[in-house]
Amino acid sequence: SSVFGANLAVRQSRLVLDPAGSPVGEDMTGLRDAGCRAWCAYLSVMIFFVFDVFCRLIGDDVTNDIQDTFGLNAVSVSTATGTTFFAAYAIAQMPAGLVLDRAGPRRAMPAAMVLAAVSVSLAGMAPNITIFVVGRALGGLACGFAWIGTVKVVRSCWGSTRSGDLLLGACNAGGTGVGALLAASPFGLLSDAFGWRGAFLAVAAVPLVLAPFAFMVISNGSHAAQNHDSEMQQSLLPSPTLLPQILSTPRIWCLVVFMAGFDAPFETFTGIWAAPFLKTACHWTASAATNAVSLLQLVTLASMLLATPVVTALRIVPRQCLFMAALSAFGLAGFVQLVWSTQHCNPLLTTLSLVSIGATQAGGIVGWIVASKDPLCQGAASTGYVAGTLNAMIIAIDAMTPGLFGMFLDLNWHGAVDAQGGRLYDLTAFSEAMTMFCFMLAAGCGSSIVLSCLVSKTN
Question: Does residue 89 contact residue 144 with C-beta atoms inside 8 Å?
């Protein structure tokens, strides 16, 4: 711990601060000087963030299996696998920040990892849908610590530096891409080999093994580190004056509409309904559907990795907002093509639509970069609280979307069932349901343009 603190002190002594106290001109030596324990801590929280993304999307390949096991319709399976998880995730955001501040990440993160293992195991062994829902809810609470805990650990090790920004960006892009990829073909192969219950129990071993490793390598930070990030830590505490400002600021609502507008359709479609859509509505084979979803995830990873240099090259925030609008329009084009495919599902056009939907996820990187520059953040003083509130609102919309999508599917169900009695939805049903996604992405595109105008006036 003393070596860790010494390395941190050396890194902080090299920082040049601007008049507002923010580091500028750092030569990136912080990445090279970081001790082994800091890198191990970063590795542990990054793996947990990968697991978080994996848990969000885990239901897609086994949606039909879960339907057959518990006898669910579209609304019920969407609520059980998606809405429950995201609702718990949203509720966990601000409490997770408080626990991380007061108990420290060394205790909070391993505890969240153990809870995540318990939640997945409980869902996998569930004798009925009630226990399955409880398992998914516990998973949402546990995974609610993943991203905030990652920010906490990175800022404790590298401070508010360009090194820390780079590592957070890499974790966001890489973690999201890798987690989404693992939830596609690899998890599909695991569920084919051991059944969906066996697959759930197998993946529960990951956070269970990770927890003791995280406890050994994560530090609550030296006294110097805590002083260095005291402003950020205080920003996570509820503020009676800042919250009304956030909720009454049009820029924040534009960001909510944009980020929820692409994220909620992606999470609902990719995490629950992409594989059933391709297999039952488009009549693709199970392997073809799984490979197509994996392609979508690869495009997602590539787009997020490319987003950072693109948004950096754009430099000024109004241009970055217009880039956000272009990404929403690109995703909108993909869903519009799927909506029009009411009679025949063209394989080439469907694949191109999946590519455009995956590319839209670059908006997450751009949106958070723009959000972190908002005047309400006061430099770094209130970034944590603004980000936590913004993320809670986005995740709340994510939580409502699966249930609404399932409701539209059920309203357009024409009575077809599989051999086990599970409902089968045709192209028309999916087309009607995905119309909702088109409206959400169109709203996100419009809000990004409005945000560009608002930011130009602010500047």
Answer: yes
In tens, the pLDDT along 223-269 reads 344 444 444 444 444 455 777 888 899 999 999 999 999 999 998 99
Strand partners, 55: none
In the numeric block, the tokens 């949402």 are attached to 140
The pLDDT value recorded for residue 27 is 38
> Across-strand partners of 423?
417
| CA–CA distance, 437 with 335 (Å, rounded to integer) | 7
Query: CA 139, CA 28: separation in Å to the nearest integer?
Result: 36
Spatial CA neighbour of 26 closest among 163, 221, 133, 132: 163
For the CA atoms of 39, 40, 42, 45, the dihedral, rounded to the nearest 10 degrees, stands at 180
Q: What is the band of 131 on the pLDDT scale with cuts at 50, 70, 90?
A: very high
Q: Is pLDDT of 24 > 90?
A: no
Beta bridge partners of 362: none
Residue closest to 157 by CA, chosen among 45, 294, 55? 45
Give the C-alpha distances (Å, rounded to integers) separating 98 from 148, 183, 237, 317: 10, 30, 6, 31
Count the neighbouring beta carbons within 10 Å of the beta carbon of residue 128: 9
396: CB partners within 8 A, 6+ apart: 86, 87, 90
Residue 94: what pLDDT? 74
Q: What's the rounded mean pLDDT across residues 179-187? A: 83
Q: What distance lies between CA 436 and its chain's CA centroid?
A: 20
What is the Cα–Cα distance from 312 to 151, expressed in whole angstroms? Answer: 21
CA gap 78, 271 in Å, rounded: 10
Say if residues 454 and 251 touch (Cβ distance below 8 Å).
yes
Q: What is the C-alpha to C-alpha distance for residues 228 and 17, in angstroms, rounded to an integer?
A: 12
Residue 255: alpha-carbon gap to chain centroid: 15
Q: How far is CA 232 from the centre of its chain?
A: 22
Asked whether the beta carbons of 423 and 416 are under 8 A apart, the reply is yes
Q: How many CA atoms lie within 13 A of 233 on its CB side?
A: 21
Tokens at 180, concatenated: 């989404």
User: Which has the higher per-residue pLDDT, 312 or 78?
Assistant: 78
Nearest to 265 by CA among 398, 176, 396, 393: 398
Residue labelled with tokens 């902080």: 12
Residue 215: pLDDT band (50, 70, 90) is very high
